[in-house]
Structure formats: structure tokens, C-alpha cells
Amino acid sequence: MNAIYESDRLLAEYLLFHYGTADEILPPDRCWPAGMADALNFPTRTAACFSAGVVHRGLDLGCAVGRSTFELARTCEHVTGLDFSQSFIHAAETLRHGQPLDYERLDEGAQRTRLQARPPAGIPAERLKFLQGDAMNLPPELGSFDRVHAANLLCRLREPTRLLDRLPALVAAGGELVLATPCTWLEEFTPPENWPPHSTFEWLQASLTPVFSLLRRTEEPFLIRETARKFQWTTALVTVWRKR
Ligand SMILES: C[S@@+](CC[C@H](N)C(=O)[O-])C[C@H]1O[C@@H](n2cnc3c(N)ncnc32)[C@H](O)[C@@H]1O
To answer: Which residue segments constitute the domains of the chain, with CATH numbers given?
Structure first.
């Protein structure tokens, strides 16, 4: 498993990505190219891709520091956020306990700005649970869920088909699945023999359509700030499925 997600640098980047305000990510003293602001709030936007209504159980796979898990808890009575990174799960748990988290935003060189991540308002902590675990080897006792969300996880797995094969049992009948992926297949995470043979969308369709119906297909941009002048602007393929 790739250790990059245990590093302090990635922890700070993801705390800013998930909990940073627009002004903290794109300070207003600079003029930013059109479209950058549209790429903010990705973890909130993907969690909002499910159909309207309140459900019982939700699961957020590869939840990182947990922002989508918090957002899912607005309409799921119980939500589990699961990630392989101990460091990310520790941060998400601290926020679940209502405690703010201090971190440093890298600006340039050794210059950093102290910031604080705070738990989103209006979400009862008792609805949330965070677990360290492997999305390719989920314990059977997890059971099934009315909503399963996995954002930007598939192309970070060594064997993504192990998760795809598990999805029919993980999603309850009539339940929904949101998969977001930038389709950035990289050898450092996934051996090429495990990449989709054609487009990622065709690969998902072939794997999921025997059990799931495709409800929607969209693109959602996201912005990860590395330094004051270096950002990753990426667009994720987002598909929403219902288990028949
Ligand atoms: C690109 S990040 C996306 C995080 C978050 N969902 C988001 O959209 O911001 C990939 C996440 O997947 C997690 N991850 C990688 N391999 C995993 C695995 N086998 N099981 C669970 N989580 C994993 C990483 O620790 C990281 O938090």
C-alpha cells in the first residue's frame, strides 16, 4: 500500500482540500483564473450526488480526512468513513469529537501559514464512525448500505476489481452508489495489468450493469492546492448507480 497518504504534507493538503475556506485556498488578494473557484468544495459536491431523502446507513470508502463522510451524515442516520491511512483517520476522528485541528498550509519554500480545520456545523457526531481499513478487503460484518460513496479511490487501488466485485453485496437492494474517479491510472498505485482495458467508463459499465442501473453520469472538477502558486486542477468522472 502506498505510504504517501501517511505524510504530513498530504495531511495538510487534504485538510485544506476538505475543510479550507474559499479565501484560504484562493486568497482574495490575487486574481484567479476563471473556473478555479468552481472546483472548490468537491467532497461536498460528490456527497450531494445521491437522490434526495433520508436513509439509514451510508459508507464512504477512501474517505481521507472525512469531509464527505460528514456531509453524508446530513441525510444518513449512520455513516461509516473508511480509509487505509491511519493519519487521515486520526484527523477525521479528532474532528468527529468536535475538536479543531491545527495545520500548516505550505505557501513557498519554508513559508507556511497556520490554519485550523473545524468540524462542519449542524452534523450530530453520533451519526458518524471512522475506521482504518482496506477497501480491497472489507470485513463481511460491515453488512450492506443504502448509500456507498467512493471518491477518487478506484485509481489508487492495487487491485480495483476487488472493490468492484464487492459492490453488489455492499449496496442494499434499491440503494445507491456514487463513484468519482479522475481516471489517473499510475503504476505507483496500480500495476498496468490491473488498469481498465478500454475507457474507465466502459470498464465500470461492464462490471456494474449486471446488478446496477446507471442513474447519472457527470464531470466534477476539483482543486488541490500544493503551494501558493501550484494547484492540481482535475476533473473527475462521476457515475451514480442504483442497485436493482
Ligand atoms: C486521492 S485520495 C481521495 C480522498 C477523498 N475521497 C477525496 O476525494 O478527497 C485517495 C484516498 O484513498 C485512500 N486509500 C488508498 N488505498 C486504499 C485502500 N486500499 N483502502 C482504503 N482507502 C485507501 C487513501 O488513503 C486516500 O485517502
So the answer is: 3-243 (3.40.50.150)
